[in-house]
Amino acid sequence: MKIDGIYTLSTIKEYFDFINFECPVFNGFAIGRLEDSAKVIPQKMPPYRKRFYKIMFILSGEIEMHNNENEGHLSDNTLFFSGEGHIQSWESIAPMSGYIIYFTSDFYSVVHKKNKLHSDFPFFTQNASMSIAITQKESEHLQRTCENIISLSNQDLSNKEDIFRSYLNILLLESKNLYEEKLGTTAVVQDSDKRILNDFNQLIEQQYDSNQENVLKSVKEFANHIAIHPTHLNYVVKSLTGNTALQLIHNRKLQEAKSLLFQTSKTVSEIAYNLHFDNPTHFVRFVKKKTGKTPLELRNT
Q: Smallest Cα–Cα separation from 134: which of 75, 65, 82?
């Protein structure tokens, strides 16, 4: 279905039906080979928002990928990450080989806490780098792991989903090591403050989850939902991120605006109302203040 003009795909099965790809889904988990999906998926995919996580491991081939406001040319020996709620579109340049893994937060949270997906794995956050290049040796190791998972998927095992969760956690942890090694992103924070920040980030993300009429806008409204004082929320967010709570709210709104400007043909007015601005003029001022450019100037850069 379309929400605010963007295809919104709530389940992995719904996504597979949309792209005409046949692949078994195991209660919120699926894995397939890119060369198989390349036979049927659209050469050019329109913008869509998904309610699940995605890891794409490209052995060979090329694709122009858009993820939120980011875009990049992905090719051989690349790991691509996309979190829940991200807006994506793509254009395939050359046939790809490799693997693609899909999973839901509910599948992961059977064994692990759901909020650990954002707190422990930085590549799933909205402003993270969407891909990393890996070495041939690293690529061969991940290929063996993916083939093991595919082999298990074809077996009749009573504990198959538990094994998938174990393999998935291994892949996530190894991907995190690679991600931090390539980009140097590490963070060690106190669990209580980390939990507050995770809850805040998840609450921000929920504002873009559906075509809801009532959204949270002020720091006070967010703090009330988390059941802490706004001053304490701001202190925690500032100490862990270097940004105020309001800056995080605005940064996410700006990311959504950029995604809609870059990946859709929506008018500035349509985007302004989609993002719950009182009027388009306020939206233009917001973007201009944050970027130094009007929405139209930003779209045409």
A: 75
